[in-house]
Amino acid sequence: MSLDQSSADPAGATVYPVEFPAAGGPQLSATRAPLKRFYDVSMTVSVELGRAAMPIGELLHLSEGAVIQLDRVVSQPVDIIAQGVRLARGEVVVVDERYAVRITEIESADAQPRSDSPEMVIKK
């Protein structure tokens, strides 16, 4: 049977091949794209202080008061991350009794997603 013919499936419904219009039309360049319409879209931004790797058994035995040593020293900047992409780095400060981050370095616009971010980690 060719693709331009209809057929009946076992349940008795008539099945027709799908037809898509030709792709094309006007293309918007990055400089002409109306980015202002996205200015009010909210994203979750995370600040990563550091990481630690430990066996599951050790993790399960953690209790109140336990201390987990991270892989960063105090003088290293923290990472500011959105959607698995590091946007900037900065230093931890306190503003009105709340933690905050003073940005000290902005990533370049062509930064790639971090290979170790949850969105990018692929387990085999």
From TrEMBL:
<keyword id="KW-0282">Flagellum</keyword>
<keyword id="KW-0472">Membrane</keyword>
<dbReference type="GO" id="GO:0071973">
    <property type="term" value="P:bacterial-type flagellum-dependent cell motility"/>
</dbReference>
<comment type="similarity">
    <text>Belongs to the FliN/MopA/SpaO family.</text>
</comment>
<keyword id="KW-0969">Cilium</keyword>
<dbReference type="GO" id="GO:0009425">
    <property type="term" value="C:bacterial-type flagellum basal body"/>
</dbReference>
<dbReference type="InterPro" id="IPR001543">
    <property type="entry name" value="FliN-like_C"/>
</dbReference>
<dbReference type="Pfam" id="PF01052">
    <property type="entry name" value="FliMN_C"/>
</dbReference>
<dbReference type="InterPro" id="IPR012826">
    <property type="entry name" value="FliN"/>
</dbReference>
<keyword id="KW-0283">Flagellar rotation</keyword>
<feature type="domain" description="Flagellar motor switch protein FliN-like C-terminal">
    <location>
        <begin position="37"/>
        <end position="106"/>
    </location>
</feature>
<keyword id="KW-0966">Cell projection</keyword>
<keyword id="KW-1003">Cell membrane</keyword>
<dbReference type="InterPro" id="IPR051469">
    <property type="entry name" value="FliN/MopA/SpaO"/>
</dbReference>
<dbReference type="GO" id="GO:0003774">
    <property type="term" value="F:cytoskeletal motor activity"/>
</dbReference>
<dbReference type="GO" id="GO:0006935">
    <property type="term" value="P:chemotaxis"/>
</dbReference>
<dbReference type="GO" id="GO:0005886">
    <property type="term" value="C:plasma membrane"/>
</dbReference>
<protein>
    <recommendedName>
        <fullName>Flagellar motor switch protein FliN</fullName>
    </recommendedName>
</protein>
<dbReference type="InterPro" id="IPR001172">
    <property type="entry name" value="FliN_T3SS_HrcQb"/>
</dbReference>
<keyword id="KW-0145">Chemotaxis</keyword>
<dbReference type="InterPro" id="IPR036429">
    <property type="entry name" value="SpoA-like_sf"/>
</dbReference>
